[in-house]
Amino acid sequence: MPANYQSISKTAWQIRRDLIEMIYQAQSGHPAGSLGMADIFTALFIGKILRHDSKRPEWNKRDYFFLSNGHISPVFYATLSKDGYFPEEELKTFRHINSRLQGHPHFTFDQKKKLPGIENTSGPLGQGLSQAAGMAIALEMDGKKNKVFCMMSDGEQQEGQIWEAYQFIIHHHLNNLIGIIDFNNIQISGSIKETLSLGNLKLKLMSFGFKVLEMDAHDFADIFAKFELAKKENKQPVIIIAKSIPGKGVSFMEKDYKWHGKAPSESEYQQAIKELAIKEKYCG
Amino acid sequence: MDKQELKATRDGFGNAILELGQENDQIVVLCADLNESLRLDKFKEFFPNRFIECGVAEQNMMSVGAGLALAGKIPFIASFAVFNPGRNLDQLRVAVYSGLNIKVIGGHAGISTGEDGATHQALEDLGIVCSLPKMIVVVPADSKQAEILTKEIATQNGPCYLRLGRKKLESIDDFIKSPKTELGKAQVLKEGKDLSIFACGLMVQEALKASIELEKLGLSVEVINLHTLKPLDEEAIIKSVNKTGAAIIAAEHEISSGLDSLVIQTIVKAQGDSLNKVIAIESLGTETFGESGKDEELLKKYGLDCLGICKKAKSVMIKKKKLNS
User: Fold this and answer.
1) CATH value at residue A178
2) What is the ipTM of this complex?
């Protein structure tokens, strides 16, 4: 764990700027969830919560990171490139034709299209956790110690498949799996509560048999501490409910569901970049 | 055909998967509470650590299979075809998009599933899987062919679909000359010059029976087993219709997709190229949902039998005559 979080916090603000730039250039993409998860992605990859090496993306001792809510690809791509998985220059190609940076992440064996760091294809909500469970059960079968991390969204918990996967993970004792739910309370059409409420998610997951941790998605001390706890747990699979602010860091995007999947106009983009630059300068 | 022990294609699959399990420890089997129906009980008994019970949760099962494939395993993902790929198409599509090495096993396909009724009789599964890019699709015509094709798809590094049935069938082995059962290779089971019958699955046997009846009426019938729908042996199709000028396409499947549309597309696209004449075509398949009943009763009622083929032969020969007059 870093002694202080100034440096990592600075990187997270840079990643936010990068992803806003990407979405603005593409004039499409999902800013709210991406901004909300920037601190966690930075901590996972650049803060090395994940055992991984950007110079050896296929290292057989790595922890696997599966993204399930693939629409927050901007924060994933921006983090991977910041960590050296591929040139930052390539971020400009996001959502453009002939790019490795597809709107939603694409795992492929085709070396020309393969983006280093991407472990699974995602986008259609609800599938990533099952894919992660498949990887986790394969690792258990082979007696390997790698961990599998899976990032999901809160809206995604409405998918039936997610609950099939929870049952499967508990039944098969996949204690090498750590799920993270970005709990930002919004989805495309409005708040989670208005759209299809999830009830007491924590209690539901505990009743399934998970160890459930709650995390402040914008407090690095809490992020590192909770992941440390999760990684040490070997008797139960862990789900982390990460309470985040959608649109974090851009005043007019924060907590507004309308920014789930919308690109900023030129003036909005200028304003966002300005705000993020100030936050970067004075963070820590 | 002589009386012999009847076996369903699922039986051949069960034998093959057991052998594959012994040969290759990367092979894993996922099933959604149907191991007996899919003839997986022996695999489960011999390889408990590589048999993953998923419960009745087919969407999760498909994506878990995808995760196993990402880890380098060769997952055989098995359930009834109405659910697999019927219910979990989205999950399958994502896995195929990634080019994952998954083997999807759709059991109890077709109207011959019988008493369970229309909800359990997959008649659109071939249309679904054939619409996915680079998917290999096979439909064995008997138990032995199912055994061979199961082993063949295990050697392919990519997504494959194997369609299985519940009905016990006679062996077509005596009719197979050359080529032997080989992925992507059509089999001319009987040569003829007046009419080609292209069939897959249990319709192959009905086509063989029909050819005998039609010969009594003076028709020389060619019977072609298209056990591989993708990649389709287009050359064999064109070669046959260039000779006969008439085709019946027979599958235990909805006629708007699957074998029927694939063969017709092949013939139409060959016009102005390798096709040397106009071809009279008739389709034999389903256009409605099925219902409960015994397999034989259902096949008869829906015209998916020897008699159904003979009726189509009559109409296709009238068409052929008109085209040639």
Assistant:
1) 3.40.50.970
2) 0.97
Q: Which CATH architecture has domain B9-163?
A: 3-Layer(aba) Sandwich (3.40)
Out of A122, A138, A167, name the one closest to residue B71 (CB): A138
* pLDDT reported for residue A2: 53
Q: Do A134 and B97 touch (CB under 8 A)?
A: no
Domain carrying residue A220: 6-282
Distance from CA of A109 to the nearest CA of B (A): 7
Is residue A1 a part of any domain in this protein? Answer: no
How high is the pLDDT of residue B7? 98
Question: Is-catalytic flag, B58?
Answer: yes
As a whole-number percent, the residues of chain B with pLDDT over 70 amount to: 99
Distances (CA, A) of B64 to A77, A84, A110, B71, B77: 25, 30, 22, 11, 9
Query: Total domain count for chain A?
Result: 1
Closest approach of B97 to chain A, Cα-based (Å): 8
Which residues, 6+ apart, have CB-to-CB distance to B157 below 8 Å?
B101
- pLDDT tens, residue by residue, A120-151: 999 999 999 999 999 999 999 999 999 999 99
The H or E element that residue B314 is part of is helix B306-324
Q: B119 at the A interface (CB within 8 A)?
A: no
**Nearest partner of B253 among B313, B296, B200, judged by Cα:** B200
Supply the DSSP symbol for B169.
B
CATH class of this structure's domain B177-324: alpha beta
The residue annotated as part of the active site, out of B58, B170, B206, B252, is B58
How far apart, in whole angstroms, are the C-alpha atoms of residue B259 and residue B230?
Answer: 10
Domain ranges of chain B: 9-163, 177-324
